[in-house]
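Late entry, iron/sulfur cluster complex.
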Amino acid sequence: MSKKVVFFFPSFASSEATAPLGILAVATPLLRAGYSVKLVDSTITPNFKKRVLEEVREAVCLAISLVTGPMIRETVELARAVKEWDPDFPIVLGGWHPSLLPKQTLECPYIDVVVRGQGEESLLEVVQHLEVGAPLDLVPGVGFKREGKLHFTTERPLRPIADLPPKAYHLADFDAYEKSCGRRWAMYISSLACPFNCSYCTNAGVYGRKWNALPPEQFVEETVDITRRYGLELLWVVDDNFLVDLDRARHIAEGLVRAGANFHWSIQATTNLTARLTPEDLRLLRRSGLHQICQGVDSGSEKILKMMNKTFQDFESIYESAARCLQAGIRPSFNIIFAYPGEGKKERRETINFMMDVCRRFPGAEFWTNIFTPYPGSPIMEQAQELGIQVPTSLEGWADFFPRYTVLPWLSGREHTRLQVMRDYLRIAFDRVPIAADTRKPTVRIAQKMLSFPARWRLDRDVYALPVELWLNDKLKKRQMQSKPAVDAKRLEPATGGAPC
Ligand code: B12
Ligand code: SF4
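Prediction complete; structure with ligand written out below:
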């Protein structure tokens, strides 16, 4: 058998494609150990199934990375096809979903091994064992099957980010990603974990709460190198909370300015920490290329924020953060979660009023909204049964968990439709800047701008009957529609900058 490992990255239903960082991370130790690696990313690979079936012929195993949601569909579809070709060919799953639900994931008949948590060392050891047909009992952090029974090994302790090897960016086909998204960009990660404990968040389940980070010098050296080497115009720094150490952030900005860095970058951070940056700090960060801070506001209702365990943020700091970011030329992007358990008409109205107020007072601030989706491993999931949530009992059952259209016991039927219509009006009422290049014609842009005025009128009055503006907007969108992603294209809109931090 040859020393080759094939990776598959299922489509995450977005045109904002770039290389999957989790796979680039786990590939490095394999490459260092002399394995060859092939990455098939469904978003940029027509006929991905055929391609994987060709590639696996001479490989040790197929390794797939996925998060909970629609990525599960292509995962299962592909795993089934591989097993039809060779029922004994090993299929390994890693990433967020298998880490949070290892047992149920491994119960899927097409999956042989799951890796829990950080995969750099685990995957290398799994591959080395599979290659020689050795049992996996002594490989920490994994689950496997033997004679139809599931076995789980001991936890593998978390390693600080500074001890992890660099990501194998050279595996990424940036030309193909650029073709699909119109922009040449990549993700970069410089810290792990978050000290807070929001009740809907899964992060602690994988990375714990001990925030740890790369030193500023390494950040500067690596980001300047990869952006120059691959001609990238933008880096999305996917840290859960980039600003936990403000001094580190300042040193990074100074280092990038000194190095003459020539790229834009964006971060995710909590509003309370963003508000702690002085106007000078923000100007320095802007000079270093920072152009966007994604922040999880989540609700405009104090009651709901309390229930989300987000007492570390207050509305004053959110307004302050919006004002200061915009003054420095940095775009504040805020996330909102609708239909959190306990959100009634009053609380939803408070949230809409808050969003409208921020957008009107601070033009350039933007909001991205989601529907509450209870993820396995989040503190709120412990109450799932009390809340009447049907928890899926198989891997496939999680494929419909997607915050753009989740249906909940307290949000279904007409109420669900009404919320979706309202979210559509929010989308056209105020401008938002996605990562993908804006390819709209000027006439379409002007026409869409005109639609924003009746949309705001409706949102102010909570009136969504006969949504003609949405119909017109759809017509405009269809006129300038480009290629669409493979998964569920009719139901999804592009996922965008900012996970629900
Ligand atoms: C970047 C990102 C995205 C990008 C993905 C882009 C891309 N090309 O990959 C985009 C914007 C598309 C995205 C979308 C969504 N995301 Co997201 N995203 C992230 C984010 C911020 C970073 C992920 C990352 O790359 N980290 C860096 C890498 C190095 O770390 P890692 O992924 O953990 O990988 C390690 C291990 O997991 C493991 N591993 C990973 N893959 C593999 C594969 C194998 C074979 C092995 C062995 C191991 C392994 O080893 C790696 C190295 O140690 C995380 C939050 C976070 N802190 O990680 C959320 C996160 C993964 N996203 C999440 C969510 C909820 C979403 C959305 C639903 C958000 C939304 N509102 O729409 C969508 C779902 C997309 C879909 N259609 O299914 C959740 C996942 C929860 C869950 N149970 O799965 C997270 C954890 C955020 C959160 N706190 O809730 N996301
Ligand atoms: S949602 Fe964001 S702030 Fe809250 S715990 Fe998760 S990463 Fe931290």
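Residues 194, 196-198, 201, 203, 240-241, 270, 296, 501 surround iron/sulfur cluster (ligand 2) (CB under 6 Å). Will revisit in the morning.
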